[in-house]
Structures are given as C-alpha cells and as structure tokens.
Amino acid sequence: xxxLSVRHLLGIKDxxxxxxxxxxxxxxxxxxxxxxxxxxxxxxxDITIANVFFENSTxxxxxxxxxxxxxxxxxxxxxxxxxxxxxxETLLDTVNNILAMKVDMIVMRHSSPGAPHFLSKHIPANxxxxxxxxxxxxxxxxxxxxxxxxxxxxxxxxxVVIIGDILHSRVALSNIFALQKQGAEVMVCGPITLLxxxxxxxxxxVETNVRKALExxxxxxVLRIQLERQQMKYFPSLREYTLYYGIxxxxxxxxxxxxxxxxxxxxxxxxxxxxxxADSHHSIILSQVENGVAxxxxxxxxxxxxx
Amino acid sequence: xxKRLIVNHQLLEIMVMRLCHQLIENHGDFNDSVIxxxxxxxxxxxxxxxxxxxxxxGKQVPTGLLDTTFHRDDFRRRETPITANATKINFLVxxxxxxxxxxxxxxxxxxxxxxxxxxxxGRPASVELLVLIDRLYTRHLPxxxxxxxxxxxxxxxxxxxVEWKEQQAEEDAIWLITKTEE
Lengths: 307, 182
Prior knowledge:
The complex is a heterodimer.
Chain A: H1 17-34, E1 48-53, H2 59-70, E2 74-79, H3 91-99, E3 105-110, H4 115-120, E4 126-132, H5 138-152, E5 159-163, H6 170-181, E6 185-189, E7 205-207, H7 210-216, E8 219-222, H8 238-245, H9 249-254, E9 260-262, H10 275-278, H11 285-305
Parallel strand pairs in A: 1-2, 1-3, 3-4, 5-6, 5-8, 6-7, 8-9
Chain B: E1 2-7, H1 9-27, E2 33-38, H2 42-57, E3 63-66, E4 97-105, H3 109-119, E5 126-135, E6 147-152, E7 159-163, E8 173-178
Parallel strand pairs in B: 2-3, 2-4, 4-5, 5-6
Antiparallel strand pairs in B: 1-8, 7-8
Helix pairs in contact in B: 1-2
Pfam families (chain B): Pribosyltran
Protein name (chain B): PyrR protein
Organism (chain B): Pontibacter korlensis
C-alpha cells in the first residue's frame, strides 16, 4: 500500500524517489490500459478537472486532456487568451471562480515561475504544474525518465546529456532533478550564453562541445531552440547554432555506439535535429509522446487519492 | 489475534482436484474456455487450477491475470490506497467462455469490478465464477459463485487468509482470522 508524499505535483524538487517509483509503476499499468481495445477506466468518474492554461500549449494540454478522459474524469478547458484575465482579473479570482463550479483538480500552465506554488497555498484543490515559466515542468521530466527506463531498463547509473537552451528551459531543470533523484549522471551542453551561471551548483557536468557530450552519454535529450528567442542574440544565427550544436545521423553513426535520442517537441527539423536523426532508430521521440499520456494518468490518479 | 485452520493442505488439494473435475464436466476439452485469475490473490488459485488441469487433460488451458484496481467502486473512499497489479492476458476474451477465479468471495464488489475490467478485453460468450472460499451472508451485491471449494459462515470482523507455498508459506492452508482486542 503506497501513496504519494505530496498533495500537489508542483515540481520534481518536492517529490521523493519513492514517489517517482510509484508513479512509474502506476504508469506501467496505465500503459497496458492504453493498449487495450477499450482504452478507458472508470477510476476518476466522480472528479472534475480544469485545464487552466495561461500560456499557449498544444501537446501538453492534449496529453493531459486525453489522460483525464481515459480516466473518465469530467474535463473543462480554460485558456487565458479568450478569458476575463484579459479584463484584468487576478489569478486567484480566476481560479476561485473555476473552483466555485465544483472542480476537484487544476492542471495549470503559467508564464510566471512559482504560480502553482502560490495557488496551492490558497485553494483546496489538487494542483498539477503543467509548466511554470522557466522553472519546472514535472510531468515532462517524469515521462522522459519513464521513457529512458523503458528503453534502457533503468535510469540509475545512466549518463544523460541535456543539449540546447538550458537557460530558458523548464524541461531541463525538472529533468536534472528527476534524473539525479533516480541515480543518473547528468550533463548539460549548449552555447555558454544559454547555460545558467548557477548550473554547476546543481551537481551537473557542463560541456560546450556537443561531440564530446555525445561521446560521454548514453542518452541525449535535445531541447528545442525557441525561434522567437533567436532575435535576442543569445547566439549569432540559427545557421551557426545548427553548425555547432545540431545533431545529424552522420554524427550519431560516427560515435560507434548506441545512444538514445530524445526531444520534448516540437522539433525544429534541420535546426537542433536533422530529419534523418529524428527519424532514426536512436530516436524515442514518439514513445515519449505515448508515455506522456500514461504518466499523466498515473499522476492524476495518485493525486486524486490524496483528496 | 486468533487464527483457526479451516482447510489444511490435504483438503485443499482435494478441493482443487474436485473443482477441476467440475470444470471439465462443463468445459470438456477447454477449446473455447479461458481462465482469468483476479489479482492479487486469485492468481495463485488460477495457477494451481491450470497446473492441475494440465495433469488431467495433458494441455495448458489459457490462463491470464486480471487486475481490477482501476475499476473498483471504493476509489477515494478507502483509508489506505490500493496499489495496482499487472494485467496479463495474452489471448482474446471475445466469444470465449471465461472462468473468473479468486480465492475468497466476500462482498462481491471485487467480482463486479472484475466483470467491468474484463469487458475492456472483449465480449465473452459466458462468464462463470470459481472461488475457493465462499463467505456466506456477506454479499453487498447479487453475485454468486458457479464453483465453490468450501463455504464459511463468518463475522464481518473476521478475515479469511489463504496461504500458498508459492508465497513462502510452510504449506498450503486456509485460515479464519479473528482480531481480538488487546
């Protein structure tokens, strides 16, 4: 008999290795459910979940919505672009209005780091952080580790490099916490302008040469270069980034070893990953998407038990 | 805690053998029949039934494991959460005669959940229920077993424990446990 040590999933920093293990074991069972002829269980049929997205998202919201529907929860979607937030309503008022409609759980994405932490102190519902600014994206990190475990058998002892825009990435931070809690070695790799100054304090290796990073690792998790930030001069040009940090099939083949290639999506084909690398046998990108639903089902199911 | 032996290993062996012969009467060569053991404790009964049938019939009857955790009606109502178990069904349930197998039938709620969970794998031709122990007068739902090893009249506060060698017990046995106040 096990349960999560937390009432909310605000970040990987707050949960224990045992929590991660429990989420993975539950996700294994949900993955089995997703491969049945009837891909639905009635576990959350008396629960209403609101997906509150103050920032645009397609795949994360779809993945959560599908996970909620597979668990038979009632789902409502809220996006700030077409809401009263535009009229000046506060975050707390917006969420309290949603809760007044008898909503039990909130899945929230917000551009401000710490927004779900703030909310958790003021409202009674369970909260799942679906990304808060450049801070954390816990379910993405969990599904990434789950996918590594699925491909390599275990996460402990594996060498994982996170490549790209570490500075602006919530995926990177949550991944570092998740991988370290499971006993993996973590390296970050990218242009020096995209590596935060504090990064070594998190106990990770730092590398600026992508080839050296790939030679070191068992798993390469390649992050998206956010094209909108390209104008902010973190690196001279996209073409130069691709030249120094882009990964293609030729480079992977020249390593003379098997590595696992991951990407949280959406991929800029031809920028951080070439098409032949993204579609190669090294890549588990589509497994990550599939596992995302199972892992999010597990998180929602286990948090619902905590009332 | 008082622990009273209600079925010893010899009687349990005879019970399993008798249940297998009853199954053969209804299912013949088992060409259209499959066994589903309910997780977690029904798996040991199902495996024992399968191996005994194999010695009698000389063939392995398809046997799977069905977990009902996500289909239970007491989710969020229990004091302690239930951890899910693996479901392993490597055959089609569609159109088959399904024999659900569990160790103890108490309120009937697990069996209700099992019927719900099983439907996700297809529409069976028929469903029967086999239990080692039928606790009388304790049902919350109108569910009755087709095959019964032994009937027990017990109090709500009592518990029936089935122990198997496979679970590192000294020998197979079924106990009636009564909690006594210290």
